[in-house]
Design goal:
By secondary structure, this protein is of the alpha+beta class. The chain has a six-stranded antiparallel beta sheet with strand order 2-1-6-5-4-3. A six-stranded antiparallel beta sheet has the order 12-11-10-15-14-13, sandwiched between helices. A six-stranded antiparallel beta sheet has the order 16-17-26-25-22-23.
Amino acid sequence: MERGPARGDDHSGPVPEVPAPRAAIPGRIPLAVVVVDADGLISHWSTGARRLFGAAKEDAVGAPAVDLLPVSGALGTEEWDGPGADAADLGAQLGELPAAHGLAAYLGGGATYPTAGRARMAAAAGLVDLLWWAYPLAGPGPERLLVLAADAARLPGAGDHGADRRRHAPGFALHTDFPGAGQLARRLPDILPSMSPRESARIVAQVLELGYPVLEISQQERVPVTPDWGVPRRVERRARLQRAAEAERNPGAAATAAEPEPDLEHAAVRERLEFLNEVSGRIGSSLDLARTIQEVSQAVVPRFTDVAGTYLREQVVAGEGFPDGPPDATTLWHRVAVEHNDEPGRWDDVVPVGESMPFPVHTPFFQCMTTGRPVLIPRITEELGNAIAAQFEKRDISPLINGRSLLVVPLKARTVVLGFMILLRHPARTEFNDMDRVTGAELAARAGLVLDNARMYTLQENVAETLQDSMLPQIVPRMPGCDTATRYLPGTHLGRVGGDWFDTIKLPGSRTALVVGDVMGHGLNSAAMMGQLRTAVQTMAAIDMPPAQLLRGLDDLAQRLGDTYLATCLYAVYDPIGQRLTLANAGHVPPVLVRAADGRSELLRLPTGAPIGVGGVPFEAVTVPVAPGDRLVLCTDGLVEVRGEDIGVGLAALAESAAHPAASMDDACDAIIRALNVTDDRKDDVALLMARLNGIPPESVAEWRLRLDPREAGRARRLVAGQLTAWGLPSAVETAQLLVSEVVTNAVQHAHTERVVLRLVHTDALLCEVSDDDHALPQLLDAEPDAEFGRGLRVVSRLAREWGTSRTTTGKTVWFEQPLPGATRRGRH
């Protein structure tokens, strides 16, 4: 393979003088490519073969290979003992063997195994030190042998006798034996002859199986022979074209010239386009921001650069919107990825991932992020390296960067700089040039677009999760006479926002409302509808609306919001004192009741009703007696529906799994999720609400009826003191008396009939409820110092843990909860 991809080898004509190439790199040298058929005749002769062996292509093709590859001898073991040398090569000293013992013997002997060697060859300029590799080929095509050859003088120091010369020896290595083998595999079609795709594919497959030609530089260094990535400068190309034109005007002066040089600049551009196309195919396989960054870094190392560090702005890493304003010297940049091909740990300890830092104005990084254009520094001088290293406290980074070639490319989206990549090449590698700057800018543009897509997806997910979390209630695990546990699993196929919800609401009379619902559809519209319905349920529950009437009110609201909204809802009220459940259903999946007495579970057969939003359909309520310890399981259809199966199968599985004993409520919920095989790739949301109905025993409840007489406030204080003493709560008497006195005084003053009810409930806290027949709710007032009224509720709000008011069908209830330090729960379990 010549300098650059050898795609123009089939052209004939004079060969103009080629300018001296840049200093050769071991493993990157021009190659002669020769293919020999089954009859020992040459079927392909590349331009590199013309330069190395002297014969023009038209003279070589069809000629016997042994005539055109006149190897005069081989280098023996005393001087050349590199791996992979041919057995004949290892048998004698230079010049002691006839031609039949070198490459010529291999060519004419029907070889069946790959080999390599180093020998002397007679040429017009004298003896040439030759490195060669030979691959036998098999298959239906006429080709039987692939020969690669190179002038050893092109290697630094290899053309001289001495110790340096001994360091360069040819050999073979399987593609798993050295780093970068995957790159070499992709490059092999470029160095093979121009032939049909089928023939080329066959040869490539066999070469990959046999092994690659390599040069062993020392016992520790082994590099593949690969094409040089680069192109002569335009000035050199122009001079070459001028010499070719002169040769055409004066043929006698160029009698030995062959075909004109292929356009290497065009080939290099095409090679970079192929690289960009390959990189574009590798990145963007995921919308996960961290994975996308890792894909971008791995795509450029080591093919384009040796070190790649990626920095992003804080708002991008956090998944927020576009950064505010242009970056400046105070902007923090987060190092999110560092990829390199140096020895392990060399970069990781000095520039760890996750660090945040600003970049001063004098640095090339600041120039890149403020201008939005790539910055190229062919070699980092010691002065610049020390200036950059000064930013890293207690770490000297200058040995890692001094002498390297630097290219900083911005990661932009819609003219906004999201971050930048720092690309560094090893000092021994060709430094970045203007074409690399263009390639890097295009690479960064594509990577920036992919990163922006991932950023927007992350932002959308964060918004969705925030919206969903704000709409789902913070369930109190323990309420009077009732323990609860919940699970919410958002759907993954259609986004993380849905219309499923659950709720628990404290009601007057120590009761608890249990709600579960599902807005049909998915996405933000369903989530918004869910939020409106949930708020409406809480509002109607606060006025103690019966279950069937509450669903009727929800249906009316849904129709006012629009005719495109449909939802299912199950509303249950648990009375722990009366030991009963009252339920109403609007098209929702039925609940499961697990009996504590025998562990039997059953689906509660409720009037199904129509979904919320249909309109004109009555709702019915059903009352079910329960016992302390029974468990009620409510869920949405995402838990029990399986595509292709009847929903009855899922409901039966729910009833069965709910009956299994568990150590806790949380364990019981997890057991149900596992039993119903709720996977991470589910389409619909899953909402699960489980309540253990503990009940409140009669001995924990005290109730009295008071007359409409101001003196009843004193009687209420005496009744409360006696009951708390009987319950063993003497420390709570004083506060309870003060609070009860204020609430009873207000009730006696505003009631219309002789019907004021005082009730105390002893659970985790002391609950006091005072009910009367006045529908007007009392309000918390800012009483003046000399005012006669308005201080009662302020005292209640200051001393009670919680307090509230609610309307009932016959009037109102004012309640408060008083904490009981050190008291034990007396409710049943």
